[in-house]
Each structure stands twice: as C-alpha cells, then as structure tokens.
C-alpha cells in the first residue's frame, strides 16, 4: 500500500476535521493549531508564511481594510454597494431604526399560567414573556455564572461553532480560545456563540428546562430508547455573545418553538408573524443572491421590536421569523422543541428548508424519523379518543392530516432518494393507512357540534400528558386483545347459526300450534349455569331417555329426554311439544329439510339401517311405523339444539377434553321405544386439541354482517332458501305436529 502523504510540522496525514492553511512560499499545508493560526483569523491573511519560510521571507502579510459595510472589507469603499447585514455600519443603522413595540404581540404571563392545558385551549400563536423563571419550573446557574465557568464545566478542548458577525460566516475554534478572546482587552472581531449544546457535559446538571418545554417536547415524549437513530439533543443551549453581535432573520430549524432566558446582559428580538404572505416573502428573500444586502424587516408589513432583559424568559412559537441583536455582552440559555400544537407549520418550515437546500448542520436532527415516531403514537391517541367516545381537539386533527400528507410524500421520495429515516419497526404504508382511517372516521361519523351533543361525544385533550394516566394500561390491553384474537374468537353478536336456530324455533312454534293457539307463547326456558369442566343434562318429561353430554359431545344415553345441557355454559332447553296428527310424507319432507339445514343426516324409517351411517347412539331395534309424533319432533328439536351447541363449542375454542362416548338402550315398561336414525355429519371421536395446537381454520363470522354481500358457492342453497321451500310445502299441505 502507498504511504499516506504527511503534512505540517507534526508530519501527520490529512485530517478532514482539522483546519489547515497553505504556505504561499513552500506550498506545504499546516494545521492551524500547530502554527497558532485560528480559522477565523485565516481570512484576514493575504499572504501566509509558515514558520520555516517566515525566517527567510519575513512575517505573513495581512489584508488591508478598505470599508466597514461589506463582508469583504477589502472591497473599495466607493459607495456603489449597499450595506450588508452584520457589519458595524449595519448594526448602527439597525439601532437607529424605529419599530412597532413588541408589547402589541407579546403576552405577559406568570410562569404558573403557562401550562400545557392553557396552550391546548388558547393555542400557542404569540410569543410569551415570563419574568420569574421559578414559576416556569426553569432552573439555571446563578446570575454571576461567567464564561470561565462555562469552560470549567464544559471543557476548554471542546470545539465549538463561532460566528464571525461582520462576515456572517461560521468557523470552528476551541472553547478555551473563545474564552481567551472574550476576556481580551481589545477584541479585533465580533464573535458570537449560539450553538453550544451541552446536554452531554457536566453543565447539564445545572440546567432544568421549563416544564412546558419538557412536557410538550416530541423528543422527550415520543423518541424511543431503542431507536436506531441517535436521540436529538436540542433542549440545552448556552449562548455567549459580545456587544453588537447580530443574527439575521431566520426560522428555527424544523419550525421548532424556542425558549430563551437571559442570565445576564440584554438581547433585542425583531419578530415577524408567520403569515402565509410573510412566509412566502421569507423563502423568496432567503433564496435571493443579495439576501445580506436587504433588510427583511422592511419587506413585511410589521416587524416588532422586543427587548429581553436580565432574568426574563421568552417563549417563541412555531414559525416566527426573527432576528437577534446583542446590545451588550450577554449570556443566555435556550432550547428548541417540537410539539403537537402546530404540526402543520412545523412540516411547512421543514419542507421550506429542503427547498432552500439548507445544510444538514443547520436542520433539526432526524426530523423525519421523529415524525414517524409521532405518527405511530398519535394513532394510538386517536384510537383512545374513539374508544372514550370523545373528539380530539381540532389542532390535533389538522396536525394529523398534515402529517399524513408529509409521510406519503416522503415515502414516494424513497424511490429516488435512498437515504431513509423510516424506523425499522414501523410499517410506513400500514401506518399511513390506519391514520387515514381514523381521520375518515372522525370526518364521516363525528363531525359538528350538533352531532357531538346528540351522540354524547365530548372534546377531550389528546396530547400525551392528558392520556398518560390511562394510555399505558389501555395500550397493553389492546396488545393482549390482539394476541388473543389469534387463539380465540369471542363473538359480540349472534352468529349465523344463532340466527338460524332462532328462526327454526319460530317455525316449529307455528307448526306445533293449532289455529286457535297462534298467540300462545312457546314454552322455552334458558338457564345459564357456570361449571368448572362439564355440564350434565338430566330431565325427564313423559319419556324416560336421558342424555349425558360433555363439551357438546354425548357421553352416555341413559333415557329419553328433550332437555339438553351443553358444555360449561350449562344451557338448558325445555320444550313441551303439542300433539297433532300429520301425514307421514309431509312430515318426513319437513324433517328432511330441517335436518339438512341443521347439518344432520336423516334415515327414513322404512330404510334398512345397515345402508346408512351408524346412528349417534346405539340402537337395538328398528324404528316402529307407529312411532309417536310427539317424541319424534321432540328429538328433532333436541338434535337441532344439540347440533347448534356442538358447533358453538367447536367454534369457541374450548380446550376441555371429551370422553369416549358409548350408547345404551333402555326399554320402557310397556315395550321397546323405537328411535329414528338422525345422525351428525361430524362423526370424529378424537378429543379436541388445545386451541394453540389446532390446525388453522376459518372461524365463524362474528355476525351476519361478516357475510353480508357475499354470494353463496354455486350449487349451494342458503338456509333461508331451504327453509322457504319447507314453508312453501307447508302451505300446500298444512299439517300440525
């Protein structure tokens, strides 16, 4: 491998992170720290001589100042070029200008009044000034905290970004070098420090951000601990500026809201409302080539001047365009935070930054990633509001709509721009779809105050703090419910089989009653008894047959009975049939239709039993032609009810094991009681598997709405059609059982 080229007196290879300067004599490159040349000083050198060349060619030559109003002070001062922002001439002219008072738009409040509840109700649209920081929950170092103290807590070797105000240019230097500059009796330049974030230093322990910024911050509330992306730290900044420092008009990155507190000194803010017209003018001004030559405050209708003195805290809302002048040496603390109150404006500011091609260094870190995290959490918030039967506030609904649009655009952009900030555990398309459904639900079903009142829907706070007392438990319950949905299905509405059984009972009622008994009520009684494992059915009417069932399966036949008790619900069906004569053929047709709908097999009494499947209990005798019609239909209804409950038990995922069933015959005193050959279509005797081990099957629909609009398979008649045929048959051949 080729040896890396070495530079400087230290003979080290090139390091992109370190400032270097080229000697105009030997053409070698030197680290600024090795030859004691600061980056912001390098622009003032016209011809540089390295230490070796300095001995032979003399010291470096410096540039000569020719003007005080241009960023390039070597330009001739012929009066042909306008004043540029940040220069000493510009600062003097700015201080001489008159502006509308900031009192017109500034809200003077006590810290105890600045709460999340207040901002949710009244909005956060205008700057707020608070004069007692303790009421805000803000904690800072004492007013005598100095620049040297900052160096002691942060470390002198920390490299910081410094702005050369006269050139409005950014450069890097060690904190120790800035401290030396600050305390020097003659300051050759005006340097300003506005981006010293100290969350990872010892000084962080001295500062507690305002409660409102902590509670509303997206980063503090929604950024997960296990995120692949590093957590953005933008809540703790230390600003150190000397007199006449100036920062031109700007919107804080990502449209973040800002809190400022002046520890000592004084700052002057020039504030402009973020109206659509002003924002359009700002974007046009920011992209113009002569931006520094135009004072943006003159392009808008009003620019307000707000003086922030020692001990005052200023809260600036989303999107406000502002410039800052340091009228005297000053130390201030501040921080940025995103929140739910102005989501649309935050997204608009971010998209403006993209159009202006703002460098990543000056943008909110991982802005798109945090928007995905917020979208996931807001989906849960909307679900909770719907479950609580209350409308989310209007600002949140508008914010989610804007967020959906932005997420869709970012997802489309993934095709051309591979750099993605979508978190790994988030399904972006599914998340957008679910958010859209929640918004459609709110728009289609719960819009308007009249509808809110008629449906008992009330507006409720939907930010994280308003739900934090119950959101964790609710989301945990929802996750458990979603997991259980794969193992069991608890119907909340009658199944198709329930509806069919009820309809069959009504038909049987009409068949059993005579013309004079049309208004008589059906003698049906349901008793629900909870048991631990199985239910035993025992009841005798005029007959003596008793069936012992467990979990919907027949265990033993003791004597004839028309009472069935099924599985753990202990459902008892008692029905007394009325006696009536009917023609055998019509009766058999009705029975055949009923049993085909119920999923039972019917063996005609005259058929040979050997030609059919085995009956569902053992028989010793063939059915007698003069079999009792009353007992005949009692058993018919008994088997229909039994089949229904059996199917319910199979669908409910019960894990109770059924015992092997056998059949016995009991002969009544006056002779043998013949039985009809009704059979279940399901003849398997294997014990039911545990729900987790059963093969996947399609569960029965929760209600008939699940199959509404779906056509039956070709060649298969619906239960309603089959029952209609039976009723049609009964009209031609009336009969009563």
TrEMBL record:
GO cellular component: nucleus
Comp. bias (Basic residues): 467-478, 630-641
Annotated region described as Disordered, given as residue ranges: 458-497, 602-725
Domain JmjC residue range list: 198-354
Keywords: Chromatin regulator, Dioxygenase, Iron, Metal-binding, Neurogenesis, Nucleus, Oxidoreductase, Transcription, Transcription regulation, Zinc, Zinc-finger
Biased composition (Polar residues): 608-623
InterPro entries: JHD (IPR041070), JHDM1_Histone_Demethylase (IPR050690), JmjC_dom (IPR003347), Zinc_finger_PHD-type_CS (IPR019786), Znf_FYVE_PHD (IPR011011), Znf_PHD (IPR001965), Znf_PHD-finger (IPR019787)
GO molecular function, one term: histone H3K9 demethylase activity
Domain of life: Eukaryota
PROSITE patterns referenced in this protein's UniProt entry, alphabetically: JMJC (PS51184), ZF_PHD_1 (PS01359), ZF_PHD_2 (PS50016)
Cofactor list: Fe(2+)
Pfam families in the record: JHD (PF17811), JmjC (PF02373), PHD (PF00628)
Similarity-based family: Belongs to the JHDM1 histone demethylase family. JHDM1D subfamily.
Name by which UniProt lists this protein: Lysine (K)-specific demethylase 7Ab
Lineage: Eukaryota, Metazoa, Chordata, Craniata, Vertebrata
């Amino acid at each position: 491998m080729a040896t890396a080229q070495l530079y400087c007196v230290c003979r080290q290879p090139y390091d992109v992170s370190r400032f270097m300067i080229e000697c105009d004599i030997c053409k070698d490159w030197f680290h600024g720290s090795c030859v004691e040349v600061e980056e912001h000083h390098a622009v003032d050198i016209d011809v540089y001589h390295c230490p070796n060349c300095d001995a032979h060619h003399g010291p470096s030559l410096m540039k000569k100042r020719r003007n005080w109003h241009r960023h390039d002070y070597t330009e001739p001062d012929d009066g042909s070029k306008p004043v540029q922002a940040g220069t000493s001439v510009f600062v003097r002219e700015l201080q001489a200008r008159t502006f509308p008072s900031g009192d017109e738009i500034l809200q003077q409040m006590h810290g105890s009044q600045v709460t999340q509840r207040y901002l949710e109700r009244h909005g956060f649209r205008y700057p707020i000034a608070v004069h007692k920081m303790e009421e805000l929950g803000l904690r800072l170092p004492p007013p005598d905290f100095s620049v040297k103290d900052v160096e002691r807590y942060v470390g002198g070797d920390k490299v910081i970004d410094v702005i050369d105000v006269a050139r409005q240019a950014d450069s890097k230097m060690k904190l120790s070098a800035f401290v030396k500059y600050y305390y020097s009796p003659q300051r050759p330049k005006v340097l300003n420090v506005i981006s010293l974030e100290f969350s990872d230093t010892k000084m962080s322990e001295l500062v507690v951000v305002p409660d409102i910024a902590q509670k509303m911050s997206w980063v503090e509330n929604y950024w997960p601990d296990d995120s692949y992306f590093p957590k953005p730290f933008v809540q703790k900044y230390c600003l150190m500026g000397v007199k006449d420092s100036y920062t031109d008009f700007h919107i804080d990155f990502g449209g973040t809201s800002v809190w400022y507190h002046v520890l000592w000194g004084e700052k002057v803010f020039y504030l402009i409302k973020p109206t659509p017209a002003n924002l359009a003018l700002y974007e046009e001004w920011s992209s113009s080539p002569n931006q520094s030559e135009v004072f943006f405050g003159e392009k808008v209708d009003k620019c307000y001047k707000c003086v922030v003195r020692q001990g005052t805290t200023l809260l600036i809302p989303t999107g406000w365009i502002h410039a800052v002048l340091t009228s005297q040496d000053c130390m201030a603390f501040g921080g940025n935070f995103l929140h739910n109150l102005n989501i649309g404006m935050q997204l608009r500011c971010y998209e403006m930054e993209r159009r202006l091609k703002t460098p990543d260094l000056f943008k909110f870190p991982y802005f798109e990633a945090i928007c995905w995290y917020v979208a996931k959490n807001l989906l849960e918030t909307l679900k909770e509001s719907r479950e609580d039967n209350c409308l989310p506030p209007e600002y949140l609904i508008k914010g989610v709509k804007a967020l959906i649009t932005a997420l869709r655009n970012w997802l489309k952009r993934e095709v051309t721009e591979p750099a993605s900030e979508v978190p790994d555990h988030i399904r972006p398309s599914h998340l957008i779809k679910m958010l859209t459904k929640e918004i459609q639900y709110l728009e289609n079903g719960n819009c308007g105050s009249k509808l809110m009142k008629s449906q008992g829907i009330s507006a409720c706070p939907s930010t994280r703090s308003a739900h934090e007392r119950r959101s964790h438990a609710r989301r945990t319950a929802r996750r458990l419910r979603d997991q259980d949905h794969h193992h069991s299905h608890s119907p909340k509405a009658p199944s198709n089989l329930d509806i069919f059984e009820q309809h069959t009972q009504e038909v049987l009622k009409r068949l059993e009653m005579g013309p004079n008994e049309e208004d008589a009520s059906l003698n049906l009684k349901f008793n629900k008894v909870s048991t631990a494992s199985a239910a035993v059915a025992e009841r005798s009417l005029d007959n003596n047959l008793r069936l012992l069932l467990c979990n919907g399966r027949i265990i033993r036949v003791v004597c004839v009975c028309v009472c069935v008790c099924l599985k753990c619900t202990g459902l008892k069906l008692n029905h007394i049939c009325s006696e009536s004569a009917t023609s055998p053929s019509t009766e058999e047709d009705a029975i055949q239709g009923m049993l085909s709908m119920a999923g039972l097999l019917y063996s005609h009494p005259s058929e040979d039993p050997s030609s059919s499947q085995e009956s569902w209990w053992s028989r010793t005798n063939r059915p007698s032609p003069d079999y009792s019609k009353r007992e005949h239909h009692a058993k018919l209804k008994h088997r229909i009810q039994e089949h229904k409950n059996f199917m319910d038990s199979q669908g409910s995922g019960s894990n109770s094991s059924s015992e092997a069933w056998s059949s016995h015959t009991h002969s009544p005193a006056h002779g043998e009681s013949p039985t009809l050959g009704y059979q279940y279509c399901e003849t398997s005797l294997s014990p039911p598997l545990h729900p987790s081990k059963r093969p996947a099957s399609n569960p029965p629909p929760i209600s008939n709405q699940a199959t509404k609009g779906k056509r039956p398979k070709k060649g298969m008649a619906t239960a309603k059609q089959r029952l209609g045929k039976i009723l049609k048959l009964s009209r031609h051949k009336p009969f009563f059982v």
